UniProtKB/TrEMBL annotation:
The keyword ATP-binding does not apply. Keywords: Chaperone, GTP-binding, Hydrolase, Nucleotide-binding, Zinc. Belongs to the SIMIBI class G3E GTPase family. ZNG1 subfamily. This is CobW/HypB/UreG nucleotide-binding domain-containing protein.
Amino acid sequence: MLEDDDAPPELVDVSTLPVEQDAVEEPAQSRVPITIVTGYLGAGKTTLLNYILTEKHGKKIAVIMNEFGDSTDIEKPLTVNQDGQEVTEWMEVGNGCICCSVKDTGVMALESLMGRRGTFDYILLETTGLADPGNIAPIFWMDESLGSSIYLDGIVTLVDAKNISKLLDEPSPEETVHDDHDDHRHDSPTLSMAHMQISHADVIILNKADLVSETELEAVRDRISAINGVARVHVTDHSKTPQIEGVVLDLHAYDAVDFDITKGHSHIDPAISTISITHAPISSSQVPAVDAWLRSVLWECTLPNSPQDKPPRFDIHRLKGLLVVPDGPDKIIQAVREIFEIREAQASSESRECKIVLIGRGLGEAEVWQRSFDECLQASLE
Ligand SMILES: Nc1nc2c(ncn2[C@@H]2O[C@H](COP(=O)(O)OP(=O)(O)OP(=O)(O)O)[C@@H](O)[C@H]2O)c(=O)[nH]1
């Protein structure tokens, strides 16, 4: 059981125990889900992990806690580890779970963990409070060896209901995010790490509800939805979610077909917003046009057919989409920053329209995005 980050008690070192042989020799195992738990310093991440590890859920969970996903480029941890300094130690914790509690960088810790494959069926990764999840999520798409053994189930962001408004309003200089794009490209205020953690979330746990009034809680909830209108929000006291499966674990956030956008919030965050665009069903021959539109938007930060005099200057953090394709399988689109994929939906959607939701900085008016998308699809028919 984990008490805090520095000194997890009651741990039994199992690093010398043999790994289950059949687990290693069995090549055709299904991929293991991984949930990223993020959230600002002191928001309740460790409290959530303790709660999950002690609840009954029938899963054997491997936990990685440490410096994973520091807001440096993902290449950095890879090179840092080339000198072979692997210090990973796996410990047994309550509920048959195992835990890596020493400082190590992410990819190495995961590779070490996969050597124990078969001893766990779920991975929880707690980032540091200052980690940018947008740097971590693409690892599971970009790293072939990891991507074939692990899949990203979702990103869960803990939010401290008492402190979040202050963090969003007054990002201190050392917490301000400097992404790959110049700040001066944007007229919008600089981003805090709290913005980044909320904008990338699939689920937001609005924690420490006991420390605020109902009115304050509603205001915070409204504010969060204005930044990320698609994440599901759960209000908690000491990170106790109503249940674990489907709330924190087994979200399938990256293969879900249906998603809703929260409407009706009164707040408009000056830095990040969520917009959605829709379209009538398309033919399979139009899918490449959507692919080209996404490449322009995500890779070149250019909105096709945007007004010449005032092109929007934007960065996309997260994008989800559903393409309803009557003459072929429906398609799901998933993107974190510039990494994206379009793949076949596992099941046909109930929805009768295509939908794309974008979360990002400097998006401006939804109509401009809608027009751009419509015109690209129209051009693909001509
Ligand atoms: N009042 C109150 N305190 C809470 C709640 N959730 C967590 N705490 C306390 O807040 C403190 C920080 O919680 P942690 O779970 O360690 O937070 P963390 O996000 O892991 O913190 P870092 O590792 O520093 O980033 C602890 O003292 C918790 O007991 C809550 O809902 N209400």
